[in-house]
């Protein structure tokens, strides 16, 4: 295995970590209108991700930086071809982050509800658009001989990519609702389990359809195995939720998302961006990679810093492992 192959695998791992961790953040944000009955409920839900949401977003920064350094051609094409989409994702993430920090700064009901709506929008938009982006990467894009995208903005919204967006949207929503049931207590916990049961059925249909479509149109032996495994763990998560085993349901959903993302990278390899107009313009792991010295230096740096990030994140989750209850949230307001 060459260094470009290793870094293709590492970038896949970084994006997998991002989708698993920030995925339930998005899901909790999207669940606010469906699970919360009053402001205390909304504060309970927000507090379940309050200590970790910004830390979870670290992984998209790591993934983007690694993509820029290891595969500059891939990075340039993706961020230019998806310029407006990426801008929409960035604005949504900013909107969501600002809302978390400012909704409690004033007591007025209208003030808080405005930021609650921003949290919802700031969660829905990236949850859908990330799926759209990765579906287009697997499907391929129109590229010229310099690897520049020559299609239109509307070309990015094709049937396959929209199904990919709906897949991440439903996966993240159900992932977040299960997380809410795992981290709360009382009536909101019961509502979360019921909502996860309903959204889980939709997720199985949508995600299953997308993975089947990916396997038929773009799959190989590796991606087929990963996709089939993702469907199995998704059903396990749904069943565990019905039985009230929230920890198993959450872990299984995390594995489902990880396997689904891995199947997309598996379907891509050894390409990083197929050219739909001319196979000669396809971007591969080898022709998009940086030089050996750059990749070797990055490898040594990652050996030092990635374990530190993992250790700090694991410690944070351990510290904030307890359930968030209405009584605790109410008491903290006084």
Explain this structure.
The chain is mainly α and 334 residues long. The chain has a domain at 3-171 and 269-328. The protein has helices at 3-35, 39-49, 53-56, 58-70, 72-81, 83-102, 109-139, 159-183, 187-218, 221-242, 246-268, 292-319, 326-332, and strands at 271-273, 283-284. A two-stranded antiparallel ribbon has the order 1-2. Helix 1 runs antiparallel to helix 2 (39-49), helix 7 (109-139) packs across helix 11 (246-268) and helix 10 runs antiparallel to helix 11. The longest helix has 33 residues, at 3-35. The chain is globular. The model has no long low-confidence stretch (mean pLDDT 92).
Secondary-structure blueprint:
Layout: H1 3-35, H2 39-49, H3 53-56, H4 58-70, H5 72-81, H6 83-102, H7 109-139, H8 159-183, H9 187-218, H10 221-242, H11 246-268, E1 271-273, E2 283-284, H12 292-319, H13 326-332
Antiparallel strand pairs: 1-2
Helix pairs in contact: 1-2, 1-4, 1-7, 1-8, 1-11, 4-5, 6-7, 7-8, 7-11, 8-9, 8-11, 9-10, 9-11, 10-11
- Tell me the β content: under 5%
| H/I helix tally | 13
Q: Which structural class fits the helix and strand makeup?
A: mainly alpha
- Helix content percent band: over 70%
Spatial extent as radius of gyration: 20 Å
- Amino-to-carboxy terminus distance: 58 Å
> Oligomer, anyone?
single chain
């Amino acid at each position: 295995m060459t260094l470009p192959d290793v870094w293709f695998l590492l970038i896949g791992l970084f994006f997998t970590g991002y989708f698993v961790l920030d995925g339930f953040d998005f899901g909790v944000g999207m669940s606010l209108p469906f699970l919360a009955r009053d402001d205390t409920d909304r504060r309970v839900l927000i507090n379940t991700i309050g200590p970790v949401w910004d830390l979870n977003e670290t992984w998209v920064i790591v993934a983007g930086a690694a993509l820029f350094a290891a595969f500059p051609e891939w990075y340039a094409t993706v961020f230019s071809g998806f310029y407006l989409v990426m801008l929409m994702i960035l604005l949504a993430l900013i909107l969501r982050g600002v809302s978390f920090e400012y909704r409690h700064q004033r007591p007025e009901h209208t003030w808080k509800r405005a930021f609650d709506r921003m949290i919802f929008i700031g969660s829905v938009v990236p949850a859908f658009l990330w799926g759209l982006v990765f579906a287009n990467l697997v499907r391929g894009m129109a590229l010229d001989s310099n690897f520049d995208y020559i299609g239109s903005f509307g070309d990015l919204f094709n049937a396959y990519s929209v199904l990919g967006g709906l897949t991440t949207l439903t996966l993240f929503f159900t992932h977040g609702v299960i997380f809410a049931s795992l981290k709360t207590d009382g009536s909101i916990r019961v509502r979360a389990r019921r909502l996860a049961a309903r959204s889980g059925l939709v997720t199985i249909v949508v995600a299953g359809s997308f993975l089947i479509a990916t396997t038929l149109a773009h799959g190989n032996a590796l991606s087929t195995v990963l996709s089939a495994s993702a469907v199995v763990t998704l059903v396990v998560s749904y069943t565990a939720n019905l039985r009230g085993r929230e920890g198993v349901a959450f872990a299984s959903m995390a594995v489902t998302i990880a396997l689904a993302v891995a199947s997309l990278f598996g379907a891509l390899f050894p390409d990083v961006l197929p050219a739909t107009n001319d196979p000669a313009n396809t971007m591969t792991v080898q022709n998009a990679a940086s030089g050996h010295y750059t990749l070797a230096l990055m490898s040594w740096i990652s050996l030092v810093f990635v374990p530190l990030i993992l250790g700090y994140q694991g410690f944070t989750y351990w510290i904030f492992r307890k359930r968030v209850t209405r009584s605790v949230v109410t008491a903290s307001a006084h």
